[in-house]
Amino acid sequence: MNRDIFEGKWKQMRGQAKEWWGELTDDDLDRAGGKAEQLIGLLQEKYGYTRERAEEEFDRRLKEAQDA
């Protein structure tokens, strides 16, 4: 699954994102609004990830969701 598909399926995947990244609040997820770049920024902010690490984490989770 690529980032465009993720954005299109945001409403369906929002709960999964909350499971993956429990430190993200509902307000955080509302702010991200399914935008990959916003969510990556939130991962950096909440988890202290570097940009590269946040992108790797995001991409890994998308791949897991696609393979499931």
Report on the structure:
This protein is an all-alpha fold. It has one domain: YjbJ (Protein Yjbj, Chain: A, Orthogonal Bundle). The protein is built from 5 helices and no strands. It has helices at 3-8, 10-20, 26-32, 36-47, 51-67. 15% of the residues are buried. The mean pLDDT is 91.
Write the layout of secondary structure elements.
Blueprint: H1 3-8, H2 10-20, H3 26-32, H4 36-47, H5 51-67
Helix pairs in contact: 3-4, 4-5
In short:
The protein is mainly α and 68 residues long. The protein has helices at residues 3-8, 10-20, 26-32, 36-47, 51-67.
Looking at CATH, the homologous superfamily is YjbJ
**Low-confidence residue ranges:** none
Structural class: mainly alpha
Distance between the termini: 11 Å
Shape: globular
> Beta-strand level of the residues, as a percent range?
under 5%
What is the CATH C-level name? Answer: Mainly Alpha
Which whole number gives the mean pLDDT?
91
Largest sheet report = none
- How many domains, as an integer? 1
CATH architecture: Orthogonal Bundle
Number of strands: 0
| Fraction of residues in H or I helices | over 70%
Rg for CA atoms:
11 Å
Order of helices and strands: HHHHH
